[in-house]
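Repro:
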Amino acid sequence: VQLQASGGGLVQAGGSLKLSCAASGSGFMINYVGWYRQAPGKQRDLVAGIYSAGGTVYADSVKDRFTISRDNAKNTVFLQMSSLKLEDTAVYYCRAGPDSNQYGPSTWGQGTLVTVSS
């Protein structure tokens, strides 16, 4: 499976942005797809993830602001980001794997840059 992330851009604080992670090739119906982000000088952290059964996981910092969803017919996972803050600025990556452990078996998409301005 290959992952293609898109939807990043420049947005003002308080605004919204929607990221997409489109999968191609075989094997999209894997157990877990998640979004991770890495800000300059910081480690890459989990933002949100969704399991094939529908369960979701969110970082505390984005709960109630971000929503992850998937469209199996389109082989795409979305991350709707609202009430964006300056600290949400980062490169966002989508990842597929058996679970949310980013250090386990993984397929990564290329990053998409989200910049939140004041």
